[in-house]
Predict the structure.
Amino acid sequence: MTKFKALGLQKSLLDAVADLGFETPSEVQEKAIPILLEDETDLVALAQTGTGKTAAFGFPLIQKIDPESRTTQGLILSPTRELCLQITNELKFYAKYEKSINVVAIYGGASITEQARQVKRGAQIVVATPGRMKDMIGRRLVDISKIDYCILDEADEMLNMGFFEDIQDILSNTPKEKSTWLFSATMPREVSVIAKKFMHSPQEITVGDKNAGATTVQHEFYVVGGRDRYPALKRLADTNPDIFSVVFCRTKRDTQRVAEKLIEDGYNAGALHGDLSQNQRDLVMNSFRKKQIQMLVATDVAARGIDVDNITHVINYQLPDEIETYTHRSGRTGRAGKSGISMVIVTRSELRKIKAIENKIKQKFISKTIPTGMEICEIQLYHLASKIKDTEINEEIESYLPAINDVFQGIDREELIKKIVSVEFTRFFNYYNKKRDLNTTDSRERGERRGDRGGDVPTSGSVRYFINVGEKDGYDWMSLKDFIRDTVSLGKEDVFKVDVKDSFSFFNTDADVTEKILSIFTDFKVDGRFVNVEVSKNPGGGGGRGRRDRGRSGGGSRDRNRRSSGGRGRDRNTSSKRRDGKSSGKSSYSGKRRDKRKSDFF
Ligand code: ADP
Ligand code: MG
């Protein structure tokens, strides 16, 4: 805090820093903020992803903006819609104690008139993707002729994506006497071209990697019987439909065996161990990099040097002998500023090892329970629904439509939705319906949580909720927890078991705040979009037994009216495009895992 103060930030921003929980500035922040605050200068800042660049330009920008004037004074260009929204949300947060600063996001795939309307109301800061920005300039829906600051964020990425000309066009609409701040992870030739062409003797800063927010890995353990390791692994995978993981086994034999079983069960898995030829290993690693493999089962030796970003989960199928090795394993996730989860499947007799690791890594593990079959069904159901929603329509279908419409004749929307969703849901439901709970922990905790779950608004115990925002909206478990806590004004420990999926999430609170939560999240909008919270049928963290739900038809009997109505002008605008430009939905194994449910090892 005081360190941020020393950089020259004003009180309102320091208060926001405190709310963000930032303790010390990251290197790029430490270097950039004083320069940007003191001088009117162009700047080129090179720093890896995840080093806190948003705050490095965001705080100085907000401090320099004149809140009294409604003129657009700052323009931030960023490569993707997700980043654009992420930056906008961050800046809004930074400016939370600066009441009259408006930050507006401009990006493709959403209503241009709505965005124009927001700009018109007075946006001192506009955060935009180049394509939509150009479009809006062309239609005179935004005026950037008076900006003082232009920020090119992730410049290398923007140029990679072919935005050179757009950027050039956009910049030609900005005044000469402005400051341009360029932020980039790398400095390819194209970036230096931009710098040369559009910037005047920029100051330069370069920082190494590693940032203040490095502890982004959450450590979890799951206690199961020795024979349940494999089914437990499957459930962990099924609970995380977009998993992109490394599964560590102790021996080459186990590695091969687990990978084979996963493949046999229809998962996109692959084995990586020393008995494979170099060629075979290259093939596996290539498929993994391309995300054709979602679960890479590996030995420690073979996995050494895997430099793949965006790994969502590290799963310790078995714990390593050396504690040191655990650190290496878990370090495969939570890279580049992303949060990651390291899961450990343990038997009771191994629990002391967890303690030993905690001491070593100076971080606590969270004790979690393997999800029940019904929890998995619920997650898969929501996942499917949002996947369908985000699916880009293939125009090739057009010519078949008359025939297809014939097939669906007489089926109304509601029924059709039920049918579509049932295709997938029934498969999971049938598979998991009669499966037992895998957890060997005593039922003490579970008993507590069981509570009263009969009605829609439980009054005792802990309650699990569904919320229709997730990773795609830029949340991880920490930020979502903060968001809920702040929105509902809850205490630090009141929101727990936050489980962020791609486009939706779950969390728990005590039942005594359920009413408050549901009432606040009724017609609750963020950025023009409805954020919905509903009580989940499942207690979460594997707390309940799926059997209670047996006999219900899969998903059909739920009271999901609020969500399934779908309408109400909600402007969701998620897509399957990730920040890396890859489609997140496409490699989901759900398309493949059809009939191969035979070996379930129970
Ligand atoms: P970049 O743009 O360099 O990729 P971001 O600005 O997106 O990085 O920041 C990455 C993560 O680090 C974010 O979750 C952000 O909240 C966090 N972060 C940024 N600065 C700090 C800091 N000084 N202390 C702790 N966390 C920080
Ligand atoms: Mg960034």
Observations:
- Residues 22, 24-26, 29, 47, 49-55, 212-213, 337 surround adenosine-5'-diphosphate (ligand 1) (CB under 6 Å).
